[in-house]
Amino acid sequence: MARKAGKAADKAAEESGLTPQKARNAVRVAKVIVPAALPVLAPLAVRAAGVARDAYDHYQARRIGVGIEQLAEYGGRGGGLLARIAGAATGLDELRRSPKTGEDDAAFAERSQATLEQLAASVRAAERMPATRRKAAHKAVAAELDHIESQLLHRLGI
Description:
By secondary structure, the protein is an all-alpha fold. 82% of the residues lie in helices and 0% in strands. Helix 3 (79-97) packs parallel to helix 5 and helix 4 (103-126) runs antiparallel to helix 5.
């Protein structure tokens, strides 16, 4: 039975034009060409890897909403939340500097700034938690951040 299968495989190989001699010749040619091509292909491979990494970094920066130069600041699993917290802090600064800011808005900005600092600390602490606890902590932080951002946008008149 195995003999028949072997003969069938040999016949199929011959019909496809691949013979043992042709296979040996192809291996010999590859042994000569591949080492000669490495000096040419290595810089291309390095350049391609660099381009791929740059494209991935730009994707990551766009995904969390920061510039490529700030990507390192917002790394890790909570990077997106930390970027949102930084954005909300910037919005609170703008609210404080606005000429239309009243005492109520200033008090909101102070309370919210303290809350944002606590949220940032929570996100950083959650980085070292097991996945289920980290996800729960991130979900709670995101909910609180949603509330602060909606109030901030309302107070800024947006």
